[in-house]
């Protein structure tokens, strides 16, 4: 079924007409990864269930889901952090952290074709091989929420960006002081969001002619699901939606692509139990495998895109939105969307 769908995508693209000049492609992009967020917990059309079949209440996320193109069914090949991030940045469904060095990634394509600056704020998923492909990244040295330690790695990065990273690193303990329950996980996420917002503002103000991709990972949600259960997981989702409002507005006001997704979902044995995604009892569950994909860009039509898609389609889709040739070592394809196709995909997908 998926192969048939890809053939239909190709046929659809071949028949697209010439691009309209009314909406130029965006210059910059943010790839936002909410670690451990399953689409069944936030999409109103879907419903998550526990392992024993009890339905779990959907968490409304108007800031995340409204106003963009929402791809309804996107599946991660392997619901684990390392493979998930590797698939996202390569467009290859079989990618792992070990294959990144010899693979042409999204970072490589953007840097070589348009001299993009590749930046990162990552609380999870920042493997050594991924960090080596980035120009500057602030990342969590461990997965600890209670005593987080963040590090900076950079090479030839703009000085003002490094300064922002250093300032935020020094402020991290203040975010977590005296926090408990859902607030602890929410503040952990907020640190990444506010760091990202400051970096984007700095790029726009200090380096307006420099194109950039900023990849973000917030890790509080996955930790909440693993250690605190569904109720706290849901509360942290609500907090993430609220905290993203001003940053999404910043991206929208400055014509920056905001692509929201996840590395994997999570599932729960019961309403009161802790969640999981990679263990044998969790790895095959729909709630662990299905991830959100919401695209906000001026040249992408608002709506809902159905059909079966894969995590490996994310990188090719972003390249299409930016109107950059897809030279990835990938098996993913950009999904069809009439407005996206009209403006970009006729010669890129």
From TrEMBL:
<protein>
    <recommendedName>
        <fullName>Metalloenzyme domain-containing protein</fullName>
    </recommendedName>
</protein>
<dbReference type="InterPro" id="IPR017850">
    <property type="entry name" value="Alkaline_phosphatase_core_sf"/>
</dbReference>
<dbReference type="InterPro" id="IPR006124">
    <property type="entry name" value="Metalloenzyme"/>
</dbReference>
<dbReference type="GO" id="GO:0003824">
    <property type="term" value="F:catalytic activity"/>
</dbReference>
<feature type="domain" description="Metalloenzyme">
    <location>
        <begin position="192"/>
        <end position="323"/>
    </location>
</feature>
<dbReference type="GO" id="GO:0046872">
    <property type="term" value="F:metal ion binding"/>
</dbReference>
<dbReference type="Pfam" id="PF01676">
    <property type="entry name" value="Metalloenzyme"/>
</dbReference>
């Amino acid at each position: 079924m998926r192969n048939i769908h890809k053939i239909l995508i190709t046929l659809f693209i071949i028949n697209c007409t010439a691009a309209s000049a009314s909406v130029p492609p965006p210059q910059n992009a943010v790839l936002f990864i909410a670690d451990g967020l399953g689409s069944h917990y936030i999409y109103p059309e879907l419903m998550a269930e526990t392992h024993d079949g009890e339905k779990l209440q959907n968490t409304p996320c108007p800031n995340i889901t409204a106003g963009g193109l929402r791809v309804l069914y996107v599946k991660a090949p392997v619901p684990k952090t390392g493979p998930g991030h590797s698939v996202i940045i390569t467009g290859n469904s079989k990618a792992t952290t070990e294959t990144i060095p010899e693979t042409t990634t999204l970072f490589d394509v953007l840097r070589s074709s348009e001299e993009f600056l590749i930046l990162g704020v990552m609380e999870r998923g920042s493997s050594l091989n991924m960090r080596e492909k980035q120009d500057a990244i602030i990342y969590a040295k461990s997965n600890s929420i209670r005593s987080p330690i963040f590090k900076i790695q950079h090479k030839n990065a703009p000085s003002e960006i490094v300064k922002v990273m250093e300032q935020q690193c020094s402020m991290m303990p203040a975010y977590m002081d005296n926090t408990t329950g859902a607030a602890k996980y929410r503040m952990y996420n907020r640190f990444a969001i506010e760091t990202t917002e400051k970096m984007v503002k700095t790029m726009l103000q200090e380096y307006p002619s420099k194109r950039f991709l900023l990849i973000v990972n917030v890790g509080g949600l996955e930790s909440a699901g693993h250690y605190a259960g569904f109720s706290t997981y849901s509360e942290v989702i609500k907090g993430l939606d609220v905290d993203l409002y001003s940053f999404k507005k910043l991206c929208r006001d400055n014509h920056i692509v905001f692509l929201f997704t996840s590395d994997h979902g999570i599932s729960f044995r019961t309403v009161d139990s802790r969640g999981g995604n990679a263990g044998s009892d969790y790895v095959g569950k729909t709630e662990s495998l299905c991830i959100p994909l919401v695209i906000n860009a001026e040249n992408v039509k608002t709506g809902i895109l159905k059909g079966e898609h894969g995590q490996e389609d994310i990188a090719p889709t972003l390249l299409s939105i930016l109107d950059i040739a897809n030279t990835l070592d990938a098996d993913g394809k950009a999904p069809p969307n009439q407005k996206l196709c009209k403006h970009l995909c006729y010669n890129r997908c």
